[in-house]
Amino acid sequence: MLELFFGPETLSSTIRLSVPLILACLAGLWSERSGIVDIGLEGKMLAAAFAAAAAASYFGNPWVALIIAIADPRLVSEERAPLSDIAVVVVDAA
């Protein structure tokens, strides 16, 4: 029974599935160190994945889907930035 939880397949699956979340955490770390708090990273990842799947289905070209997946979170962020009335406070670490 323990082989199900601690087997090599479970370890490789855990590493494979955790890479996107680790990259999003690093992006959040870098943005917070610059003084910008971005709490929508998982939503941006979800929007990019949906846009890429829709583009790949519609165009049938994975390269177009990749370009759309890269552009979609940026467009969504630029669209919502003026609507946000949250003040960004830069904290001095010194």
Question: What would your notes on this structure say?
Answer:
The protein is mainly alpha-helical and about 90 residues long. The chain has 4 helices and no strands. It has helices at about 1-5, 10-35, 40-60, 60-80. The mean pLDDT is about 80.
Overview in brief:
The chain is an all-alpha fold and 94 residues long.
Number of E strands? 0
User: With helices defined by DSSP (H or I, 4 residues minimum), what is the helix count?
Assistant: 4
What's the helical proportion of residues?
over 70%
The rounded distance between the terminal residues' Cα atoms is 52 Å
Rounded mean pLDDT score = 81
Taken in chain order, the helices and strands follow as: HHHH
Q: What is the 3D shape?
A: flat
Strand portion, in percent?
Answer: under 5%
Which residues sit in consecutive blocks of at least 5 with pLDDT less than 50? Answer: none
Structural class: mainly alpha
Biggest sheet statistics: none
Cα Rg:
18 Å
Helices and strands, with pairings:
Elements: H1 2-6, H2 8-33, H3 41-59, H4 62-80
Features:
mainly alpha; 94 residues
